[in-house]
């Protein structure tokens, strides 16, 4: 890690090193969020795979009913 810092200091220079270090930290943070989101999506997909066919059909029916119910907020005026 120290070697990377020294090489960065020599290549980038001391005045631009903090800027590039902040960009690298931001990229690492964004990558961590992306990986966490992907992990949660995979976990949800696996949990859906644990459900039986009847449960998946029931969930599908409920989501279809939710989409078909009219939005009554426009009726209130």
State the main characteristics.
single chain; 77 residues; mainly alpha; 3 helices; 0% strand
Write the layout of secondary structure elements.
Blueprint: H1 2-12, H2 17-50, H3 53-68
Q: In DSSP terms, counting alpha (H) and pi (I) runs of 4 or more, how many helices?
A: 3
Weakly predicted, low-confidence segments: none
Strand content: under 5%
Kindly state the mean pLDDT as a whole number? 77
Oligomeric form: single chain
Q: Termini, distance in Å?
A: 64 Å
The arrangement of helices and strands along the chain is HHH
How many strand segments?
0
Percent of residues in helices comes to over 70%
The computed structural class is: mainly alpha
> What's the alpha carbon Rg, rounded to whole Å?
25 Å
Query: Biggest sheet, open or closed, and with what strands and sense?
Result: none
Number of domains: 1
Shape: rod-shaped
Written account of the structure:
This protein has helices at residues 2-12, 17-50, 53-68. It is an all-alpha fold. The longest helix is centred in the middle third of the chain and has 34 residues, at 17-50. It starts with a helix and ends in a 9-residue tail after the last helix.
């Amino acid at each position: 890690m120290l070697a990377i810092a020294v090489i960065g200091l020599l290549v980038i220079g001391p005045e631009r090193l903090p800027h590039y270090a902040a960009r690298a930290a931001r990229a690492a943070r964004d990558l961590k969020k992306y990986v966490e989101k992907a992990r949660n999506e995979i976990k949800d997909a696996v949990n859906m795979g644990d459900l039986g066919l009847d449960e998946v059909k029931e969930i599908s029916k409920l989501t279809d009913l939710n989409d078909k119910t009219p939005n009554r907020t426009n009726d209130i005026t």
